[in-house]
């Protein structure tokens, strides 16, 4: 599955529009009208896409705002990281490979800093003070599921300046270059994972990332930005995942959205959308196990039948103490909840086997 791509920022036509690279058309585009872009400010921008012949462009007010708020003038390369369906975290680099300002630790929250370099054989210089004042002589580098121990030293490239850079070298570095078949000049993005660990992502010349990584959703800032008018009916636009490190966003299969509001908590039930019930045979379940981070609560699945038309199922409701559940999960009202069916388990209740639907709720 493709997750990441790099491309040059079009300095002439931005913030009006940006033509996306071919890699986007081939591996990421699903015919959607807009994409969710997340900036370093941890806000979401719902940016319109325009298909213009063979080209796909980002354009419109939201894209303009995104650039204005998140991309400083000296950024020349943009890096899109897919963290959920049609959702990308976007960062950028200067010509020297330094991640754009605004990405300092205190601004990024749980995001970590990155740099972009081209591979040089016989040791690798990382730009600026990417690793800040770390004098550790060995770093662990993770790439494509492999781990390498690489020597590290601080180097003073310019004798006139006190600024020091970082150099990776030694047998470990040579083995990494050989094992991963990295070509001279190949694009590489290092992410500082902290604790003397680096992650390495390799890119083809067309900007496509070569390997898969574990990508978790950004914890979006609350309150969110106003939703663009064209996305106002889109429940995804109202949802904010508040489960740190949640890993079930890579697709929207088996997902429904319902708002937790006063009606749900007052009447102790939540109605599952009808088409979802039909597709997922919700009436065949006796219970639902709702999981949010370390919280696990069992709700009853109640089938409401239409008395005037026997055999017809009108609604399926999840009944239980929604107020308590919301409080335990830290949901603030009104909260657009996302339910993803992740498993079905059998359970014996009073000698009878019932099916339990296990949902991730965030
Ligand atoms: Zn989530």
Automatic annotation (TrEMBL):
GO terms for cellular component: nucleus. GO terms for molecular function: DNA binding. InterPro entries: DNA-bd_pseudobarrel_sf. Keywords: DNA-binding, Nucleus, Transcription, Transcription regulation. It is found in: Nucleus. The keyword DNA-binding applies. This is DNA-binding pseudobarrel domain-containing protein. The lineage of its organism: Eukaryota, Viridiplantae, Streptophyta, Embryophyta, Tracheophyta.
């Amino acid at each position: 599955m493709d997750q990441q791509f790099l491309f040059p920022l079009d300095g002439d036509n931005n913030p009006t529009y940006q033509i996306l690279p071919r890699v986007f058309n081939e591996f990421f585009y699903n015919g959607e009208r807009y994409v969710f872009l997340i900036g370093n400010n941890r806000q979401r921008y719902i940016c319109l896409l325009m298909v213009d012949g063979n080209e796909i462009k980002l354009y419109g007010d939201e894209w303009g705002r995104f650039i204005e708020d998140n991309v400083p003038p000296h950024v020349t390369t943009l890096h899109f990281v897919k963290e959920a369906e049609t959702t990308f975290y976007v960062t950028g680099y200067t010509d020297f490979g330094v991640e754009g300002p605004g990405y300092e630790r205190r601004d990024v929250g749980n995001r970590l800093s990155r740099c972009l370099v081209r591979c040089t054989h016989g040791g690798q210089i990382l730009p600026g003070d990417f690793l800040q004042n770390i004098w550790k002589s060995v770093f662990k580098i993770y790439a494509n599921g492999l781990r390498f121990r690489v020597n590290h030293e601080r180097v003073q490239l310019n004798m006139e300046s006190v600024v020091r850079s970082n150099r990776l070298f030694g047998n470990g570095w040579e083995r990494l270059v050989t094992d991963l078949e990295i070509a001279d000049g190949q694009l590489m993005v290092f992410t500082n994972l902290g604790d003397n660990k680096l992650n390495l992502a390799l890119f083809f010349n067309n900007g496509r990332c070569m390997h898969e990584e574990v990508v978790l959703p950004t914890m979006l800032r609350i309150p969110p930005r106003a939703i663009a008018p064209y996305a106002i009916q889109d429940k995804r636009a109202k949802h904010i995942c508040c489960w740190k490190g949640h890993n079930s966003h890579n697709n929207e299969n088996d997902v429904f959205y319902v708002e937790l509001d006063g009606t749900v908590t007052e009447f102790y039930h939540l109605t599952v959308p009808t088409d979802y019930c039909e597709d997922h045979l919700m009436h065949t379940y006796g219970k639902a196990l709702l999981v949010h981070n370390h919280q696990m609560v069992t709700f009853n699945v109640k089938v409401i039948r239409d008395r005037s038309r026997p055999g017809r199922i009108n609604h399926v409701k999840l009944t239980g103490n929604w107020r308590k559940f919301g409080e335990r999960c830290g949901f603030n009202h009104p909260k657009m909840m996302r339910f993803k069916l992740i498993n079905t388990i059998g359970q014996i209740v009073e000698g009878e086997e019932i099916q339990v639907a296990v949902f991730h709720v965030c």
